[in-house]
Each structure stands twice: as structure tokens, then as C-alpha cells.
Amino acid sequence: MSDDNETIYQDFKESVNMAPKELEEWLESDESKSVGDSSGGESTGHQSGRRIVEIKRKRKADLDDDDYRHMKKVNQYVARHLGQPPQKEDRKTSRWRYSLMNWGHDPLKSS
């Protein structure tokens, strides 16, 4: 594994603070399905959430280049969106939180 992949892996472990089962249950909720960029089908974040569950259930040794590319995308999404919290909206029920949760990160969870 390259050093870059190790960094991506460690960042992913920090970015994704939801367990696979927890994320699967969230993805089934109406709130999860209510947010995200979609063209009449499943949103990008929702698709990402399903992929995150697959990645989190793999052994580290079984991760491939596609997994690392997706993990890097997740890290970037979470970092970018954490920097753009809602100003007036209740964070607990905000589209901001719901979108982040589709990507495996609940911003209201303590680290």
C-alpha cells in the first residue's frame, strides 16, 4: 500500500463516523432520500452511502484502487461540507446534516 493510500485510509476512518449498519438504516429513511443531487433517480450521496457500507465491510487488505478513489472523494466531500454549516437552520434537521449523513458522516456525533 502506498503512503498516499494509507493517508486516504486514515482520513476515511475519521471522515466516516457512522457504522455500516447505522448508515444502512439511515439510507432507508425518508430524510436520507429527501436530499442530494439526483436526476430523477437515486442521489449521488445516496449511491455514495451504499458504496461506503461496502468499503467499510471490506478488510483493509482487500481494498482496491476504485475503493481508494471513492474514499478520497468521500474525504473531500465531508471536509468541504463541514466548512459550510447552515447559519440559521436547526442543524439537527438540516439538509446539510442529512447530506453529510448520506456520505457517512453525522456532524452531531462527538468524535
Automatic annotation (TrEMBL):
Keywords recorded for this protein, A-Z: DNA-binding
Superkingdom: Bacteria
Keyword flag DNA-binding: yes
InterPro entries: DUF3140 (IPR021487)
Molecular function (Gene Ontology), one example: DNA binding
Stretches for region Disordered: 25-65
Name of the protein described by the UniProt record: DNA-binding protein
Source species of the chain: Kushneria pakistanensis
